[in-house]
Design brief:
This protein is mainly alpha-helical. The protein has two domains: 33 residues; 83 residues, no CATH class. The chain is built from seven helices and no strands. It is elongated, with a radius of gyration of 24 Å.
């Protein structure tokens, strides 16, 4: 009897090994699979709160340049966002789009990351309301006054 149990266990080892490898590869593939972007369902339209134009991305490099490019591409989406670096209180900005009408946006990781995240959601086809809620959930932090 024992011999048969040991033999059965040995016969199952390759199957278990292959199953574990397949599971690991599936997880790695799912985690690294590129995001497929769709056409936005409800592109933002209407009047802008911030009416000044976005600075050219040519003045910047890397993520900053990308953020300025996106702000110019989807200004209504960016104009609908609250900026969680609290520049509205600290610099009298109107919206997140205001950060990209001057060089503030190039120096602030919060502003840049909000724009990049908004764009990612926009390209996934999220509505403006869904984008606003998602950005608020991800970036909200309590306000702390700047010390002079």
């Amino acid at each position: 009897m024992r011999k048969k149990n040991n033999e059965t266990k040995r016969n199952l080892r390759p199957f278990i090994f292959i199953s574990v490898i397949t599971l690991i590869l599936s997880v790695v593939y799912s985690a690294t699979k590129p995001v497929e972007y769709g056409t936005p369902i409800a592109p933002a339209t209407g009047e802008l709160i911030e009416t000044r134009s976005v600075m050219s991305p040519a003045f910047y490099t890397g993520k900053a340049a990308e953020a300025y490019r996106i702000a110019a591409e989807i200004p209504k989406v960016i104009d609908s966002q609250f900026c969680y670096c609290y520049c509205k209180k600290n610099h009298q900005h109107k919206t997140l789009l205001t950060c990209f009408t001057n060089e503030h946006g190039s120096k602030c990781d919060t502003c840049i990351n909000e724009v990049l995240y908004s764009y990612e959601l926009y390209k996934q086809g999220k509505t403006l309301d869904e984008i606003i809620v998602s950005v608020d959930k991800k970036f909200y932090r309590p306000y702390k006054p700047q010390r002079l």
